Amino acid sequence: MWRGLLLRSSTCLLQVGAPRFLLQGCLTSPFLRPLPQRLLHRSFPIPWGTGYFLTHTGTRGYKKDTKSTLEFPVTPITVTDIKQYLRSKDIPFHDGYSCLHIPSIFVDSSTRKEVFSLFIDKTTGQFLCKDTLVEGSWEDLQDCLEVMQKDGEESLNPNVLLGYPESVEEQEERERELREVQRIWSTSVPLTDLPEDEAQLIKTMFQITKISNATLKKFGVRLFKPTKSLVFPWFGGPDSSLKGVKLLSAQRTETDKVTYNEAAVPKSNSYYNLFGLPLVGRLDSEVVVTGHEFDTMAVSQATGLPSVALPRGVSCLPPILLPYLEQFKRVTLWLGGDIRSWEASKSFSRKLGIRRCSLVRPGEYRPCAVEALARGKNLSNIIKASIPAAHKSIVSFKQLREDVYGELVNTDQVAGVKWTRFPELNRILKGHRKGELTVFTGPTGSGKTTFISELALDLCMQGVNTLWGSFEINNVRLAKIMLTQFAMQRLEENLEQYDFWADKFEELPLYFMTFHGQQNIKTVLDTMQHAVYLYDINHVVIDNLQFMMGQENLSVDKFAVQDHIIGVFRKFATNSSCHVTLIIHPRKEEDDRELQTASIFGSAKASQEADNVLILQEKKLVTCPGRRSLQVTKNRFDGDVGIFPLDFIKSSLTFSTPIKGKHKLRKVTTKPENEEEDEATAVASKKEEVKKDKVEKVKGNTKTPRTVKSPANGNGAIQK
């Protein structure tokens, strides 16, 4: 949902790039270019390697792209506002789970397939007509209704909403993608047409031997022989035409595990396929939502229930898909068999309507659906045993028992996503976890923004959807810093490599808020909530807290304002299951003193509310650049704290852990009592000697004239 949202110029968010699906192999296509490989949800965290992606190649031409900006209303619309407006226009509506349903104004009443076929998102106000696929913002819909009322029309032409016209390059790229879709689909072969031994070999390679040929034919799965990839079709639109394909290849690792690499045409930020949706009937009231096409086929074959797969697995549930799930009274989320899929299930249930959702809890006896089918499990019983997403305010240990066991079994996954550039931080914090608040501070000019940008970039490269709120430096400078850190070199000196690294950087699930300078906390919070809903943001970086305090009421104590803002971020992190990293400047301290938790500006609420407190220490030296180290003074996850040195590499603007022995931190050791007594005696005697020397000098100066060296010859001259 929605193209209108992406085509307007008013902004609060900037998208660097959405994650694209990748395919390892060599497709015979003009779209191919090397790119880091992104694996599916079978691996945790998502590794980053080598592969290919589908995109347009050619000479780069600089242009101002209006589509890269994302609209966010100054005053967010509420469902109450939408209902009041519809009532004022005498428009009937049905209150759904995540959308309001109204009769479509783009279809003549005599030809409508459904009475209520236009869906309005309760959170964003965006609308979608399922009959004509017309979509737009709430303001667009209001304009259309006003025009209809003024002209006395009963319906409007679907072409009345026109966005920005496509450029020649965009039109050519879209046509190439459509030709590529048709080429792949026409040259692929149904598995049922393959010889029995070849078909069985393919099923063994993808570990789907339990999925029957009839099920594969029912879902239209084919084989693309040039890359030995399975092809999953995307049929959609009023005429159920072929709109895209997803290709999946398999490879075995050194540990004899199978990993999957995928690619989508069109590219992933335009690939909105609910795999299996064409097989769902209009009267079906129950559906099982999975994170992978194999799981959907396994559920359908074993239970006969309608099942659909999300286009991007557990990483995202695009709001454009919500209208297609409105008809179901019960939605069972079975996204996988690990902790990550469990967290995604709880997050997605809030979008779908928590009252109708039930979740399949991961565990040894409840793996992902295709694995459960391979083990001979009863999938119907697993679905029946799913727990409701909605729960009361008070729970017993019986309800928490499985969650506790799951955390004990999956300790590495519970610890969160590991950093690849900061192994010492993994040793202390164990990982990056959702729903936590991290407070980060450091001396002025020590490189707080540079360090935290690399820290966030490290996670973003592993698939953590990231939103940056940089109020101190503008987005262009920040993006330049992060691109330099990503390329590990100064691109000013290697401009011929800019396109190569910019293409890779554009693939990251990275977004920027367009705020700069002092901002109101409510506006920032509304933007964050909008981004979490629309792009499933997992990590928000705020740089820094002080820039949000200037817009508050000046009559209120500044510490009370800061406490309020910190409380808001704490609540947001918990309720949205999103990690918030908050940069706060320290109080003014002496240069030779190390910062402590108490050095954070403001009251103690920042350190109390935070799950993690990180301090960038800098020991300033006269003869060379200061030595930096990162200190963890609070870790609510398991209590480990510590400090480790950092080396700043100016050429790449990166921090790295130095080689052991190069810089050793000073250790404080406890000395024996007799040594301490001897040392104290020596210090006292030395002080006495210094005092005697001073007394003797004073006495001598009263009797003897001062000797001053002549600047000309350096000899001593008597001055009376």
Question: Can you offer a commentary on this structure?
Answer:
This protein is an alpha/beta fold and 720 residues long. It has 20 helices and 30 strands. The protein has an 11-stranded mixed sheet, with helices on both faces. Strands 5-6-7-8-9 form a 5-stranded antiparallel sheet. Helix 14 (448-460) packs across helix 15 (475-487) and helix 17 packs parallel to helix 18 (558-576). It starts with a helix and ends with a strand.
Key features?
720 residues, alpha/beta, 11-stranded mixed β-sheet, 5-stranded antiparallel β-sheet, 30 strands, globular, disordered N terminus, disordered C terminus
Topology summary:
Layout: H1 3-7, E1 13-17, E2 32-35, E3 51-54, E4 69-70, H2 79-88, E5 94-95, E6 99-102, E7 118-121, E8 127-129, E9 135-136, H3 138-151, H4 168-187, E10 189-190, H5 196-205, H6 213-218, E11 222-224, E12 229-236, E13 241-252, E14 258-265, E15 286-290, H7 293-303, E16 307-309, E17 330-334, H8 339-352, E18 357-359, H9 369-374, H10 379-384, E19 387-388, H11 397-409, H12 411-415, H13 423-429, E20 437-441, H14 448-460, E21 466-470, H15 475-487, H16 498-506, E22 510-513, H17 521-535, E23 539-543, H18 558-576, E24 579-583, H19 605-609, E25 612-619, E26 627-635, E27 642-649, E28 654-656, H20 673-703, E29 707-709, E30 716-718
Parallel strand pairs: 15-16, 15-17, 17-18, 20-24, 20-25, 21-22, 21-23, 23-24
Antiparallel strand pairs: 1-4, 1-22, 2-3, 5-6, 6-7, 7-8, 8-9, 10-11, 11-12, 12-13, 13-14, 18-19, 25-26, 26-27, 27-28, 29-30
Helix pairs in contact: 14-15, 17-18
